[in-house]
Structure formats: C-alpha cells, structure tokens
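FORM 12-B: Structure-to-Sequence Request
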C-alpha cells in the first residue's frame, strides 16, 4: 500500500483500509515481521560478516603475493643486469 508523494487523500484512503480491514492489517504486519527477521537475523549477519572477512582476506593475500612477485622481479632484474664499464 503505497501513496504518491504529497498525495494526502491517497494516504488517508490507505490508512482507512488498514483501520477497517483486520485481515489486511494482520497480513501486512506478519509480512513485515518476516521481512525484518530475515534481513536482520543474527544468522544472516554472521554469514554476511564471514563472507566479507573471507573476501577481504583473499584480497589482502593477493596483494601480498603481487607485492612479493614484484619484489622478486626487481631483485632478478638487478642481479642479472649487465654492468657497463666506462673507459677513458
């Protein structure tokens, strides 16, 4: 039951439907409670936090691997670089 913005008459009409219809009021209340329990349950929160932690951990590990690989490449380039002597 939605009303357009600034539609006071529509809002009042929807409100009166709820006041006068016990079954609709009960159904909407139960649906709202079920939605809140699903979206904000501790099990979902723990699961979401676990997934986020795992994602961040993998990203951090990949960043470290990339940094280590770049360091090894730089080490390799310096170790195998030919030296040039300047002759007078």
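FORM 12-B RESPONSE
SEQUENCE OUT:
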């Amino acid at each position: 039951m939605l009303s357009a913005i600034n539609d006071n008459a529509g809002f009042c009409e929807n409100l009166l439907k709820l006041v006068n219809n016990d079954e609709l009021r009960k159904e909407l209340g139960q649906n709202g409670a079920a939605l809140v329990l699903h979206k904000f349950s501790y099990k979902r929160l723990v699961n979401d936090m676990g997934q986020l932690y795992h994602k961040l951990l993998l990203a951090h590990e990949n960043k470290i691997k990339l940094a280590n690989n770049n360091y090894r490449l730089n080490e390799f380039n310096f170790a195998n670089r030919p030296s040039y002597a300047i002759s007078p």
